[in-house]
Amino acid sequence: MTSSTTRPTLSGQTHTPVDTATRRRVATASFIGNFVEWFDYAMYGYLAVTITAVFFPDSDPATGLMLTFSLFAVSFLVRPLGGFFWGHIGDRFGRRVALSWSILLMSLATFLIALIPGYVTIGIWAPLLLLLLRLIQGFSASGEYAGASAFLVEYAPPGKRGVYAAVVPASTATGLLLGSLIATILTATLDSQQMTDWGWRLPFLLAAPMGLIGRYIRSKLEDTPAFREMAVKDEAVKAPVSSLFRDHWTSLVQAAGAVLLNAVGFYVILSYMPTYLSEELGLDQTSSYFATTVALMTYIGFIFVTGSLSDRFGRKRVLMSASVAFLLFTIPAFHLLDTDSFLVVLLVQILLGGMLTLNDGTLPSFLAEMFPTKVRYSGFAVSFNLSNALFGGTAPLVATWLIATSGSTIAPGWYLMAAAAVSLIAVALAKETSRQPLNMD
To answer: Which pTM value belongs to this model?
Structure first.
């Protein structure tokens, strides 16, 4: 229960105190909801090779894989549109409203993917239906990461916004982890024909019950103290996105640039990597999935460490360290991946994941703190989804294309380095926010 008394913050605002039990429920609900959404979203990437065989059976393997990743990329094109929509809902009507509906939409679209007949049954309608449902997934996902981050930052106690917001990337990685575990089990126990016929559909069918559970848990929470205070004062803006572009465009540009390393790194290292290892470097599928699974487990542990480090040393210092690490070590790491030693491949993936956590564990609090309460959801959602639409969703496609055109298997590493350089500049130009109270105006 929250207390009925209020106390002033450093900025002179008053917030209703929140007890530890409430914060624990908020963190749990945010974790579970985000976990469900990103498990749903990740399965497409992990099962890309099998999906290619189901929906593009007449294409050669390389072309079919590029077509599959093209659908992966196209679904990201609606994410800026979703960012505008969910940002408006979240800033105008509440964070909880947006989060509750986004998880239902994602789970429904994912469940329906499992029911689409393959190309041999309905022809061109199969990939077209897949495209439609991927677009719905992208639209839904655009509200999740931003909303959950804003929710946690606005509930967090002073001095711990970084570690609280780290729940979001940790839950995202846990969704990926479960997806990787399921993909590992399926490829280890089913032959290729069984996977193509029905095995790939099983994880997608889990979306419906998991989504309903996540929706139920979220519906039991109150909205954040910061949003409730704004609503009581009737200070919510009617057009938060317009206000964002009019009054906070500098922060928006800086935030979009800061997201670039996360956008490219997340989808190259944690989503595309099993396909890269098996299709480009010749590692068997089960070993590829297993290596990614172990890397994800260590990533989840590192995330909370980096979130805590950002509370102690500041967001900018940790984010800039991540960019510098990728500039120095990415190419050597990709050279080491092309080896006959599975242990080396595993250690390199753990290293890359650890480097990525320096960015991912800090970014949610950094982005949420850049914008005032009135446009926080919109600012986060638009900047995050714009960079992910242009560079994150296209990362597997670009990586596959770079390898095909250059003939070099380390080409994705250069792409990662370019993203790190842009993020480094954007973060260097931004203000340090970790020790400042949340801005209401």
So the answer is: 0.81
